[in-house]
Amino acid sequence: MLQAQPKITVTSALYEKDEITIGTSTSAAFTAELNAHFPGAARSSIHAILPYSIVVTNNGPSPISSLTLRHELYSRAGTMISWTFTYHSFGSGREAFDVHSHASALLFPVSSISKMLLEKRLDLAKLNLPDVHIRMNDMLATLSTQESVTISVDSIIFRDGTLLGPDKANVLTMFNDSKGGQNDLVVEFTLRKTAGASDAVLLEWLSAEQNNAQGPGAKSDAYIERRKMIARSIANVIKAKGSEGVLQIIDGFKSQYPRIVRRAIR
């Protein structure tokens, strides 16, 4: 049998001067979003996780393109573990994700539900899938044994790359490393193409990159994975259209990742 619900604290005042409002599950903004997305009986499937969920409202002029939700779980023995989930549209072209001016976003401890909502592809039928129920029940079992839970938004990044928040998850470094991996691969491709490499030679190089995308020196996982992804994308274009087709999409790659810069919370 699950124990009583732990004490829940939502850190809500952190971004108020930057026109970002964070509401608890009892706030009017949360209720409005819940009614809009989970009508009637659909709400019963997520009822148990609602106390551990929040709503983020963007009252400013710039769209939000990344949100990092953090749960800190404090046990009765005094230890702490954290759950961190980052949702973003950088590097994907998923602008539908963006939380625009005067819009709100619900964030749940079950990341798959938050992701479907943010990407505007919520399928209520999927809430009853076994894997979703298993994940939800496992999380509730862990939460119920804690003394207290603190919920916060660890970071917010706007479409222009401005980051707010403590960023304990270090997403600033992660995104900038991803941008580095992408840009380095694109520069190397352009140099090889300009030097006259054939499509066959380029594909051979790109295949090797997908298997070992370290680049010069030691690199982070974010750098390596983005470099591999861009190598795969370019290879697919060459196979479909030839290497000339890649030159037409390089600017698109560059625009997917702004330079992330921290701004002090006012």
Structural topology:
Blueprint: E1 7-10, E2 20-23, H1 28-37, E3 54-58, E4 64-74, E5 80-88, E6 103-107, H2 111-118, H3 130-144, E7 148-158, E8 162-164, H4 171-194, H5 199-211, H6 221-241, H7 244-247, H8 250-255, E9 261-262
Parallel strand pairs: 1-7, 8-9
Antiparallel strand pairs: 2-3, 3-6, 4-5, 4-7, 7-8
Helix pairs in contact: 4-6, 5-6
Q: How does this structure look, described?
A:
The chain is an alpha+beta fold and 266 residues long. It has eight helices and nine strands. The strands form two sheets. Strands 1, 4, 5, 7, 8 and 9 form a six-stranded mixed beta sheet that branches. A three-stranded antiparallel beta sheet has the order 2-3-6. Helix 4 packs parallel to helix 6 and helix 5 packs antiparallel against helix 6. The protein is elongated.
Describe this structure in a few short sentences:
Helices cover 38% and strands 20% of the residues. With 266 residues, the protein is α+β, with helices and mostly antiparallel strands.
Number of strand elements: 9
**Secondary structural class:** alpha+beta
Shape: elongated
The helicity comes to 25-40%
- Summed up, the domain count is 2
List segments where confidence is low: pLDDT < 50 over at least 5 consecutive residues. none
Largest sheet: 6 strands, mixed
Radius of gyration using CA atoms only:
21 Å
What is the straight-line distance between the termini? 45 Å
Give the rounded overall mean pLDDT: 88
Question: Assembly state here?
Answer: single chain
Give the SSE order as H and E letters. Answer: EEHEEEEHHEEHHHHHE
Supply the number of helical segments: 8
Strand content: 15-25%
